[in-house]
Amino acid sequence: MFWKISWRNFKRKPLRNFLTLLGITVGVVSLLAVTSSVATTNRLINEQVQETLGTTDFTIQSTEGNFPKQVLKEVEEVSGVEKALGLTHLSAEVDIPGKNEADLPVRLTGLSKMDSSLVPLKVIQGSPNSSGLFLSNATARLWSVKPGDSVSLKIDGKKHTVPVAAVVRDTMFLKYPVSGNEAAARNRHAAALPIDLLEKLSGKKGVLQEVRIQTMESGKDQSMKEIESRMHHKGYPVYIEAAIADPRQKNRLDELYLFLLVLGGTALLISCMILFQTFYTNIAEREREFAIMKSFGSTPDQIRGIVLREALILSSVGTLLGILPGIWMAVTLQKGIFRSFHVDFDYEIQLGTALPVTVALGIILPVIASLLPVSRASRISVIQLQKMEKDALSRPSKWRILFGGALLGISLFDHDWSYLPAILGAFILIPFAFRGVQRLMWKFLRNRVESEVALRNAIRQGRRHSNMAAVLMLGIALSLLMTSFFNYQDNYLERDMASTFGGHLQFRAENPFTKQEIDAIREEKGVKDTTRLGEASVIWGSGGEQRRMNVLGVDPEWQHSHPLYTLQRGEEKATDLSAKGTILLGDYAFQQWGGEIGEMIRLKTPGGEEKFRVTGVVRTGFDSSYVGFVGKERMKEEFGVAKEVRGLLALHDQQDQEKMKETLLHNMGNRLVEVRTLDEEIKWQRRYFPGLSFLFAGLLAVALGTVGIGIVNLLLMSVTERLSEYKTMRAIGAGRSQVFGMVIGEGAVIGVTGILVGSLLGFWLIGLNAISDLVDMEFIIPWTEWVMICLSGALVTFVATSIPAARAAFVSMPPVSSD
């Protein structure tokens, strides 16, 4: 019976419930899209990175660059080793038949076995047993070749014709550029081939750069110890470590995930506010009904049950209606994310977690939002009904002021959650702003009848109106924060990159640079100076998870003249790179570690497990800031490696970076894996902004659209409550334009309050970023974009208000008696 009562009440206000359903549906669509996109992107990247290691349990790396091929045979003789694979790399150039471009750089990887699960190359064309090049599907498309075709490779100045043996599924192991231009700018083409063929082409035999090992599940530690013993006994320049693929080394996407989830959650939060307003009004309209029910014996629990069932019907139907559009929006958003980063992956939308979480939140959160109105309904009695006040906005108490101010003060403490108390404080204080805006507008507009009526109605319905202004405030503040972030990145990217790039060019080789090679580079015309960087891959733990990052050995004098990082915070002697047992962490590595400055971080280095004191946090562009820095002279003693495969180069003023890059590639092309100029890196980073800005603008538009639905619903309810009042006004001579203006005036108070407080909150959040050590931003207010955001908020408010205003203006007048 109670379900029938709830269903009947649900059908009593079809337009109101339709708008509430629409708001919930939009919120669910937005949340499902962002959660599934985050899950899909995160899983795809993790799978792609993990796939590069295949079934590898351990790897053997060189402390000097390469080691004898005999190491592979020694490993294969160890009991417990199921599979072992040798790898070596070589840089070359490829001349693609029928192409007019210059020779393209390509990284060749020689494998001791081509069909090993330690490097999973899934052949889609050709034969895995053929001798020749194995190309990713994307590379084969760019080169316009297929199995059986031949390509021309240039190695050490000599040309070789090599057949294409097979085309394999796209994989990060054979990392490929999306276009030929991208290959020239940053990502080299890549190909795999049998190691015997690579040795024949290069003339270099008997050396490896890596050995991958898969052991039996039982006895892994014993196998590792035996391998270490053999390597130590033979004196090979190698070390063994667990195979860990950490996607954070190349992809810093946590901030992107957070922004997406915040925007998706905001739309659902606005939907909850819409449902709250709907039930608040419904209960106000049915006070007499509930009081009579209680007088006839209905219990508070029964009344609560009736209203909660209505909320459950609304949230369930709205959530179900949002599932299919949410999946469609998730696909669209996923395409947009990959398009923004200029990558092309085959993927499946991940709904396994996103769908049940969204459905649960879509049903539960609106029901929770209805609890306060439900509680009010259960307390109504006939006697209290005579004493109940209307929905007027009472004067906020001083305790509310103190509490809201305290929350804003708490937000000034630098913390990951600083935004939350700031937003909550603004929500608590917005009734003051609503009353202030109403009084200010009263001062200037009270001489007009429709304005006076509108402002009086705004205060009469002040609680509901101020709540909707708070929702608009949140949309404006988030829009301003996001816009400021992109504006800062676009305007100050060049300055920030130049201050942490370490010079004008960065270059990397497969094997360590010799002193003679560095001296030869230093003698090139236009070169001011050059240096080598030490590099060690270390394993560390965070939250019970094994992770990997690089530690770079830096020349202190070079850091002083051509900085690789800038210190954000640290101990007094944090800049002393030569201090033993100390390390500087990039801000992303520090955030992932979770410790504090002055504490010890435990690292498994090539030389063994060591503890280092974290003396500071730095901002850097190296390895997505997931990196550590120490003095270069400490690398051999404290980290057990002496290889230096990275180089930095500084040019004299006005020297052409691109020309110097061409010179390096011409002189050392077969030695270099990668050459990047500062100008290229700036262009590379900037190419993300248009796509990401468009995506966030779309999500913010959805949030503001949800706000519009809420305003329409709110004012329609207010107009419905006062239809008789508007009829009387029309009967005594009020024109349609005057009635229209009365409702527009109510919406204006909502809009002005939301835009004003939203702007102030947005400025506050930008300021929190500026003073935070956790976020790399300055206090930048994008004034042009701010005006556009305010105009967008005003437009949404006006359009949303016009619908209920038109209903009020065109209400039919009561018949006039002729008596």
From TrEMBL:
One of its GO terms (cellular component) is plasma membrane. PANTHER family: ABC TRANSPORTER PERMEASE YTRF, MEMBRANE COMPONENT OF TRANSPORTER-RELATED. Residues 18-170, 471-621 form the MacB-like periplasmic core domain. InterPro entries: ABC3_permease_C (IPR003838), MacB_PCD (IPR025857), Macrolide_Exporter_MacB (IPR050250). Keywords: Cell membrane, Membrane, Transmembrane, Transmembrane helix. The chain crosses the membrane at residues 256-276, 311-331, 351-375, 396-413, 419-437, 469-488, 694-719, 739-766, 786-810. GO terms for molecular function: transmembrane transporter activity. Its main location: membrane. It comes from Kroppenstedtia eburnea. This is Putative ABC transport system permease protein. It is found in: Cell membrane. It is a multi-pass membrane protein. Residues 263-381, 699-810 form the ABC3 transporter permease C-terminal domain. Belongs to the ABC-4 integral membrane protein family.
